[in-house]
Fold:
Amino acid sequence: MTGQTEHVYDEVNYAAASWKRERRVLLKAEVVYGEGKEPKDNPRFVITNMTQSPQWLYEKVY
Structure:
């Protein structure tokens, strides 16, 4: 633990039962640290057809 907010990015292909095909899902796992507070998990996801890296897309587009 560094005591500072940390991020991990990844991606998976996923298809909900109602979808005709798989979609690209970007994942961002974040732990947020605040002064005098307990660390807080902050998971996020985005469905996209863009091809750039998950980290680049989260930081520059989303």
Summary: The radius of gyration is 14 Å. Residues 6-61 form one domain. The longest strand covers residues 23-32.
